[in-house]
């Protein structure tokens, strides 16, 4: 029996890996939600010069666009275009989100767009809805060994608030919410590049960092999302998705300095000095918090009986993506 699976956000960092993992599964036929139809026009029929009309990336890679590629027109920012998008779909895996921008635009995509998509899925008889969210819905921490249901949903940014609202729409429809924390690997333009940016700002590494972080490489995350979407054992609710072993900040820093870039020729500063030097940079301060505040979410139950393994730990997976990080950071394209 063939499973019809619809993926949103299939050109994104995580969504692209989810779509690839789904295509590798026997008996799964993948569709992707696209803001463009096969003739290159937006889903609402407006003319286009080939660029997203609002500056956001399209939801489907150009190679996937075509009458036989399983693309479905629809724009989360325009709920009326989602009508019919879930017809014949068995499983919806919703990976698309807007991160950053003005609060109204973020809410339009993540909150209202998800609500409309979930309503369409329910109306169409989709039997399973999965949403890839973020552990950031819990706020800034600290969190140490927190298990599902133990921490309140208390987002602090407009993006996280809108994604928490999206979670509620999915959970109300008895869907499955998956919350990774730090996702690394080829295509990551936030976690490791931001950490390198902090070290460049400091012209040094940081000593005395003891925080523990839940992390997962993006390839494993893509496979895990698909495995959970197809698993009969994973019912409605929310789970954390990370490698079972949290990564100490000291290990993360050492890996970045050894394999990607070592700013300051090996100099080190303590946390207090780092805070003073980074005071004028909100992004640097955010990544300093990554090194100094625990964000460890424990959910061994997620991996139990799942047709997917968390695989090797951070050291092995990071070593494979380090050349990509070096190349990406060398271009200055951040």
How does this model look, in words?
The chain has 334 residues and is an alpha/beta fold. It has a domain at 3-179: 3-Layer(aba) Sandwich (Rossmann fold), CATH 3.40.50.720. Helix content is 37%, strand content 16%. It has helices at residues 13-23, 103-124, 158-172, 191-202, 218-230, 249-259, 271-277, 282-292, 300-303, 314-331; strands at residues 3-8, 28-34, 71-73, 91-94, 128-132, 143-146, 176-179, 182-184, 205-206, 212-213, 215-217, 237-240, 247-248, 268-269, 295-297. The strands form five sheets. Strands 3-2-1-4-5-7-12 form a seven-stranded parallel beta sheet, with helices on both faces. A two-stranded parallel ribbon has the order 6-15. Strand 1 (3-8), helix 1 and strand 2 form a beta-alpha-beta unit. The chain is globular. Residues 38-69 have low confidence and may be disordered.
């Amino acid at each position: 029996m063939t499973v019809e699976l619809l993926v949103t956000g299939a050109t994104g960092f995580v969504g692209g890996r989810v779509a690839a993992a789904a295509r590798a599964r026997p008996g799964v036929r993948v569709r992707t939600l696209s803001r463009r139809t096969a003739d290159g026009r937006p889903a609402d029929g407006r003319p286009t010069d080939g660029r997203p009309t609002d500056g956001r990336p399209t939801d489907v890679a150009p190679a996937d666009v075509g009458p036989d590629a399983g693309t479905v027109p629809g724009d989360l920012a325009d709920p009326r275009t989602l009508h019919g998008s879930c017809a014949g779909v068995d499983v919806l895996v919703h990976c698309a989100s807007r991160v950053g921008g003005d609060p109204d635009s973020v809410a339009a995509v993540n909150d209202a767009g998800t609500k409309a998509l979930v309503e369409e899925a329910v109306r169409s008889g989709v039997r399973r809805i999965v949403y890839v969210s973020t552990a950031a819905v819990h706020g800034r921490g600290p969190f140490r060994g927190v298990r599902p249901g133990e921490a309140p949903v208390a987002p602090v940014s407009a993006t996280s608030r809108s994604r928490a609202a999206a979670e509620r729409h999915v959970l109300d429809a008895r869907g499955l919410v998956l919350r990774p924390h730090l996702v690394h690997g080829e295509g990551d333009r936030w976690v490791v590049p931001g950490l390198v940016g902090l070290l460049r700002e400091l012209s040094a590494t940081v000593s005395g960092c003891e925080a523990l972080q839940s992390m997962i490489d993006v390839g494993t995350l893509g496979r895990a999302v698909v495995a959970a979407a197809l698993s009969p054992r994973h019912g409605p609710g929310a789970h954390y998705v990370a490698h079972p072993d949290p990564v100490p900040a000291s290990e993360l820093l050492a890996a970045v300095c050894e394999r990607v870039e070592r700013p300051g020729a090996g100099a080190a500063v303590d946390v207090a000095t780092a805070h003073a030097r980074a005071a004028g940079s909100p992004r640097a301060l955010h990544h300093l918090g990554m090194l100094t505040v625990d964000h460890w979410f424990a959910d061994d139950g997620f991996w139990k009986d799942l047709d997917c393994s968390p695989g090797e730990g951070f050291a092995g997976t990071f070593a494979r993506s380090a050349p990509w990080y070096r190349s990406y950071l060398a271009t200055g394209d951040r």
